[in-house]
Amino acid sequence: MRSLNIAHRGASSLAPENTMTAFRKAAELGADGLELDVQFSKDGKLVVIHDELLNRTTNGKGLVKDYTLAELKELDAGNWFSPEFAKEPIPTLEEVLAEFQGMHVNIEIKSGVILYPGIEKAVLDLVSKYKLEDKILISSFNHYSLVECKKINPEVPIGILYMAGLYEPWDYAKKLGCYSIHPLFYGVQPEIIQGCKENGLAIYTWTVDDPKHMAALNEGGVEAIITNRPQDLKEILTGGKQNG
């Protein structure tokens, strides 16, 4: 059983992250799924963008939360990556879910640095609208947000995002009702893989861009590899590129 190929913010090594172009390119490349980030606009719309600040990935300045959806849609989210992507807009979560209903989507709720009360219900309402409960997985560094998701819909799969070395993370994850753990790939040791397998937890590890690491994690048996380079991971998973 090979690992799933999950495109981190889309095929973000080839197109501007968290844009429809990046997601479409990931689908064209044969990725199994997409990973994306959601925040609220000023008027409570779910927008797909990673940073709380607009400065890095758009021509806007300031906080996402201070702009309405209409204002965010006027920004250029592509030119920073390359002029060929000029005028690429910030997508809404609904636009992504509507177009990619056949793909597995890992939705990361960004509610920590800035808290977005009600974002969990908004995300789950949208998932329910498109009947995608069996296609999505919700993750967050804010584990309170994940607990809120389980309160709203106990059937929704959730996964804890973390960077540091959690001791026996399967125990903690099971307490929260998680389907998966989402560690930074440096923290995926053989004992972590074994412990999760014994406790029925999937591992979605991020952000894996080195082919040697991709090959080792696939051979180790992790359920999913989240990468900026789904094109490289596909070669490894299909035997086209070897570990080395």
Description:
With 244 residues, the chain is α/β, with parallel strands linked by helices. It contains 9 helices and 9 strands. The protein has an 8-stranded parallel β-barrel with strand order 1-2-4-5-6-7-8-9, surrounded by 7 helices. A hairpin with a 5-residue loop joins β2 (33-40) and β3 (46-48). The mean pLDDT is 97.
The end-to-end span amounts to: 21 Å
The topology string of helices and strands comes to EHEEHHEHEHEHEHEHEH
Number of helices: 9
Average pLDDT metric: 97
The spatial strand order of the largest sheet comes to 1-2-4-5-6-7-8-9
Rg value = 17 Å
Overall, the morphology is globular
User: Strand fraction band?
Assistant: 15-25%
Strand tally is: 9
Residues in helix, %:
25-40%
Quickly give the structural class.
alpha/beta
Main β-sheet description:
8 strands, parallel, barrel
Q: Would you identify the regions where 5 or more consecutive residues have pLDDT less than 50?
A: none
